[in-house]
Amino acid sequence: MLQYIYINGYPGVGKLTVAKELEKLIPGSKIYHNHLLIDPVAPLVERTSPHTVTQYGLAYAATFWTSLQHLRQRNM
Question: Do you know which Gene3D superfamilies this protein is assigned to (predicted)?
Fold first, then answer.
């Protein structure tokens, strides 16, 4: 069964550092961090106005849910 650990916090507080340490401790684990989602979406949609911020959020959410579905199907 696929399980997740969600780490939330302010930028620069060490979320990815903690995730890397957990990955070492949990056999077979993988890090799925936010930049895997942000980096492909950022060049496509600017975040310069409320309208484009909404578009960015929708593109980010679509990328996230598509990726999550892929992970679930792969690990069933």
Answer: P-loop containing nucleotide triphosphate hydrolases
